């Protein structure tokens, strides 16, 4: 059993479900395989279950923790040579400035209530990242890695697959946490694509969001007020198709047409 902070009551608002099982903690650390000299940042170290194992490999890591009590406790557990603790909200953190210099390796057993906005925020600096290893709700990882045509393929799949190669590594059962969440979790590896297709990010975001606005509707129905059938066809898409059947590259083509034509 990992060493834990006594008397700390898990805070729901911070999505605190602490890993309590050495087998799973080690398995995640092995998947990350931290090495000395790498710039590793853990989001939400909590009671340092994973942090200790990461430091064992890397000698030093950075952590972003929002919970003031945990941040203060963490400072008493590690020397500043081993751990730099940044007390901050990972959603408001200045990732761009932090990622200057050596590229980052990002790790986290993420608070599930902020996982999607955090993934989108990190996607903005994907060019500054070596890799990301996250524990998330299994259902979210299934959506991230889904292929077109599958029921779980949606906005999250398209937006992230445009930037990353992703693979689910393994599932983790609720009993591995205290308190136990209601859902199964999965660990996902995300490696930024070396040359993501160039596209105006806002146009891409807007096209994808509008296309999936109503899942059961065709693209024509979701986009008719904005984009013509001809332009949809020019992007290699049939207007009668539903967004959940359309590959990422066609969304990119459509977004390019939208921005080139100032639609
Ligand atoms: N890494 C620990 C473990 O595996 O046991 C804790 C994981 S717990 C699911 C999520 C952690 O993220 C908590 O420590 C929580 O306080 C922290 N957290 C929640 N929201 C955060 C935010 N917006 N920014 C930074 N940390 C956050």
UniProtKB/TrEMBL annotation:
Keywords: Cytoplasm, Methyltransferase, RNA-binding, rRNA processing, S-adenosyl-L-methionine, Transferase. Gene3D superfamilies: Ribosomal RNA adenine dimethylase-like, domain 2, Vaccinia Virus protein VP39. Signal peptide: none annotated. It comes from the Bacteria. One of its GO terms (molecular function) is RNA binding. One of its GO terms (cellular component) is cytosol. It holds the Pfam family RrnaAD. Its EC number is 2.1.1.182. InterPro entries: KsgA/Erm, rRNA_Ade_diMease-like_C, rRNA_Ade_Mease_Trfase_CS, rRNA_Ade_methylase_Trfase_N, rRNA_adenine_dimethylase, SAM-dependent_MTases_sf. It catalyses: adenosine(1518)/adenosine(1519) in 16S rRNA + 4 S-adenosyl-L-methionine = N(6)-dimethyladenosine(1518)/N(6)-dimethyladenosine(1519) in 16S rRNA + 4 S-adenosyl-L-homocysteine + 4 H(+). S-adenosyl-L-methionine binds at residues 17, 19, 44, 65, 89, 109. Its main location: cytoplasm. It is found in: Cytoplasm. Residues 24-194 form the Ribosomal RNA adenine methylase transferase N-terminal domain. Belongs to the class I-like SAM-binding methyltransferase superfamily. rRNA adenine N(6)-methyltransferase family. RsmA subfamily. Specifically dimethylates two adjacent adenosines (A1518 and A1519) in the loop of a conserved hairpin near the 3'-end of 16S rRNA in the 30S particle. May play a critical role in biogenesis of 30S subunits. This is Ribosomal RNA small subunit methyltransferase A.
């Amino acid at each position: 059993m990992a060493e834990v902070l006594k008397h700390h009551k898990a805070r729901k608002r911070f999505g605190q479900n602490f890993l309590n099982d050495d087998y799973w903690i080690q398995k995640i650390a092995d998947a990350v395989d931290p090495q000395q000299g790498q710039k590793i940042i853990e989001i939400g170290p909590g009671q340092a279950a994973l942090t200790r194992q990461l430091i064992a490999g890397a000698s030093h890591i950075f952590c972003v923790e929002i919970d003031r009590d945990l941040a203060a406790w963490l400072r008493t557990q590690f020397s500043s040579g081993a751990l730099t603790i940044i007390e901050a909200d990972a959603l408001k953190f200045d990732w761009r400035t932090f990622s200057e210099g050596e590229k980052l390796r990002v790790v986290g057993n993420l608070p599930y209530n902020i996982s999607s906005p955090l993934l989108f925020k990190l996607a903005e600096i994907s060019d500054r990242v070596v890799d990301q290893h996250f524990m998330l709700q299994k259902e979210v990882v299934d959506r991230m890695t889904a292929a077109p045509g599958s029921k779980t393929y949606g906005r999250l799949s398209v937006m992230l697959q445009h930037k990353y190669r992703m693979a689910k590594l393994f599932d983790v059962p609720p009993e591995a946490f205290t308190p136990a969440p209601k859902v199964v979790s999965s660990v996902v590896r995300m490696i930024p694509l070396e040359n993501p297709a160039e596209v105006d990010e806002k146009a891409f975001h807007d096209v994808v969001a509008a296309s999936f606005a109503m899942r059961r509707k065709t693209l024509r129905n979701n986009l008719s007020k904005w984009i013509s059938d001809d332009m949809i066809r020019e992007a290699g898409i049939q207007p009668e198709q539903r967004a959940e059947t359309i590959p990422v590259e066609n969304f990119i083509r459509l977004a390019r047409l939208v921005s080139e034509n100032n639609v």
